[in-house]
Amino acid sequence: MGRYIVGIAGASGAPYAKRVLQGLLSGDHEVKCVISDAGRRVLEVEERLLLTGNTETDHPDLLEWLQTPDADGQLELLHHKDVAASIASGSYPTDGMVVVPCSGGTLAKIAHGVSTGLLERAADVCLKERRRLILVTRETPLSLIHLRNMTAVTEAGATVLPGSPGYYHHPESVQDMVDMIAGRILDHLGVDSELLKEWRGPEPAEYAELE
Predict the structure, then answer these.
(1) Which of 3, 130, 187, 209 has the greatest count of CB atoms below 10 A from its CB?
(2) What tens digit of pLDDT does each residue of 111-158 get?
(3) What pTM was estimated for this model as a whole?
(4) Distance CA 73, CA 75 (A)
(5) Where are the extended beta strands (E) located within 58-123?
(6) For the chain, what are the domain ranges?
């Protein structure tokens, strides 16, 4: 199986992070997870998940939140200040990284190669090693600064994948919309999942309604 990095930064969108982590772990992939201080705050606000920043004690709480107790050996939680961690080096092979959600500030740091912590450094490594890097941005509306930073990371080889779900698959719940974005993320990481419903065109009955 593959080895992937999941970064969680301080923007709204914790449910996306949860579903992506679940998708990777259910596929028996190895996951290195880095959560910024602001990311921990978002998890607390949006998911009622209280993490202390101590990776050793936070690890079981993260697994419980993900409802994946059997994935203990697959998931490694790394401290965001541990710039000596494995994923800080290009000599450590990975199959890709996603920052979900990705704040405007984290986007700016990655776009300009400013590695203030492990999350940005791991993203920088993916860019320099020409590995998959997906940034799930969540700002709205977008300023010119955001747009220019998105252009910069795209030119450097990253994929900007905004957390903006579609509605053509007729979602019946918020979870359906979360799953759509999570499925797109996993697809761009090269990971098979059942979250993304393939679009094959409208049903014949829908055509009749348009006539």
Answers:
(1) 3
(2) 999 999 999 999 999 999 999 999 999 999 999 999 999 999 999 999
(3) 0.94
(4) 6
(5) 75-78, 97-102
(6) 3-210
- How would DSSP label each residue in 2-14? -EEEEEE-SSS-H
Instruction: Return the SS3 of 73.
Output: coil
In this structure, how many other beta carbons lie within 10 angstroms of the beta carbon of residue 29? Answer: 19
Three-class secondary structure of residue 196 per DSSP? coil
Residues 15/176, Cβ–Cβ less than 8 Å: no
DSSP assigned state of 15? H
User: 3 is written with which tokens?
Assistant: 């080895």
Fold of 3-210: Rossmann fold (3.40.50)
114 phi and psi angles, rounded to 5 deg: -100, 100
- Report pLDDT for 178: 97
The whole-angstrom separation of Cα 9 and Cα 147 is 18
